Amino acid sequence: MNEFPAELIGFVCAEAIEHYGDDIQTQIAIEELSELIQAIIKMKRIEKQMENDDDFWEDNNNVNVAEARTSNLHEEIANVEIMLEQLKIIYDCHKEVEDFKDKKILRLHTHIRREIVKKNDDLCNGCKNNYPHLLGCNCLCKIEKEN
Q1: Domain-wise residue ranges, the chain
Q2: Fewer beta carbons within 10 Å, N or C terminal of the chain?
Q3: pLDDT tens-digit profile of 28-81?
Q4: From CA 120, how far away is CA 118, in angstroms rounded?
Q5: What is the pTM for the complete model shown?
Q6: Which helix (H) or strand (E) holds 95?
C-alpha cells in the first residue's frame, strides 16, 4: 500500500522541519536510527531462538513475540526512511545521496559478479544467460579473464 506520492512525502517532511526545526528533527533522526538498531538486534535474537528451539512455534507467547518484533522492525524501518528524507532536506543533498547510492549499488554489483566469476569459471564464457546483471553481457567476465 503506497498511498502517498513522493512529492507529498517530501512536502510533509519539509513541513515537519519548518514546524519543529532542523535541530529537533536531526535529534529525532538519531533516535529513530537507534530504535532501528534495537529492533534489528531483537529480531536476530528471536531468529536465533527459533533456530535453537524446536518447539518455538508451539508456544503462543513466542508466536506473539515474534509477530510483534517483526511488526516493530517494519515500523522502525519506515520511521528511519521518513527521517532520512528529512535529513536530505535539512542538508540539501538529495542529488548527492542518489549519486552515492548509484555508485554504491554499482560497486556492490561489481563485487558480487567478481565473486560469482571466481567461484564458477564457466560464467566467463557463458554469462550471457546464466546470471542477469546490470553491466551487460561479459562485462566482468572479460575483466576477470584479463586479470
Answers
A1: 1-92, 93-147
A2: N
A3: 999 999 999 999 999 999 889 888 887 877 777 888 888 999 999 999 999 999
A4: 6
A5: 0.77
A6: helix 94-119
Q: Which three cell numbers stand for residue 85?
A: 528524507
Which whole-number Å values give the CA distances from 19 to 12, 14, 132, in the listed order? 10, 9, 46
CA 57 to chain centre: 28
The position carrying cell 519539509 is: 14
Q: How far apart are CA 106 and CA 72, in angstroms?
A: 31
Q: In 39-65, which positions are buried (b, 16+ CB within 10 angstroms) versus exposed (e)?
A: beebbeebeeeeeeeeeeeeeeebeeb
- CA–CA separation, 122 and 139 (whole Å): 14
Burial class (CB within 10 angstroms; exposed 0-12, middle 13-18, buried 19+) of 83: buried
**Helices 139-146 & 123-130 angle (0-180, nearest 10):** 170
* Phi, psi values for residue 4, rounded to 5°: -110, 125
Contact criterion met (CB below 8 Å) for 39 and 72: yes
Which cell numbers hold the place of 89?
A: 532536506
